[in-house]
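Methionine aminopeptidase (Aquibium oceanicum), 275 aa
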Amino acid sequence: MVTYQEAATAPLKNTGQIRLYDEDAFAGMRKACQLTARALDELAAMVQPGTTTEEIDRFVFQFGMDHGAIPATLNYRGYTKSSCTSINHVVCHGIPDAKPLREGDIVNIDVTYILDGWHGDSSRMYPVGRIKRAAERLLEVTHESMMRGIAAVEPGERTGAIGAAIQSYAEAERCSVVRDFCGHGVGLLFHDAPNILHYGSRNEGVEMRPGMIFTIEPMINLGRPHVKVLSDGWTAVTRDRSLSAQYEHTVGVTDTGCEIFTLSPGGLDRPGLPN
Ligand code: MF3
Ligand code: CO
Ligand code: CO
């Protein structure tokens, strides 16, 4: 017996099957992802010493509401905020709170809006005031890692090509790649198959095909790759307390490579860094 509720949500379950989306879906993703990118653009001016991550989170909530979108993280598996804000040695899933940002901090802001059922998932690093040269280098390496992963997206190749491109570059730059979190299929679901590992080799993973949509969101550390999750059940930090950074784009596989849905409309893909 299948209940009405099961029947209604069956097409939206993560069954491990990889969805191939059509051109209408790509159009829906473009809109959702561009809304997320616009919010991340607006946040660039807001990230200053003294701003609290709760203020950032309120902006993300309100901007979504004003544009007919819902933050996907709200009430997701018990998470109660509209964004994740991960500062310094926080790797990911930092929970917005009342503590002001301080000069020299680096903060990742991760936003996912659901617009007309489509999920736009993206994050960027924001320097708070002037930051140290080592921190700036980590942001540059992490952004370049993500872009090299994106450049490895090609139909016929395996998803392992993405991880291989990221790992070989990041480690050559004497940084490490976090293993405990990965990119993911996205679209009508927030987290779907396939997993996108940010390390590994070319011949691993599944074959990429036109119509697949997923995120690439490497977390790169200045120190060792190991993380632990704090007692709040969410906040992941580096075990050695070294600085960690992350950027995230949502991409769709095309016949020749991929389309980056979450590119900044304002040229702010790397806020605070020279373009
Ligand atoms: N946006 C995150 C991602 O990139 C997921 C956050 S889930 C939360 O996949 F519950 F921690 F918000
Ligand atoms: Co994601
Ligand atoms: Co995200």
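The chain has five helices and 15 strands. The longest strand covers residues 106-115. ok done for today
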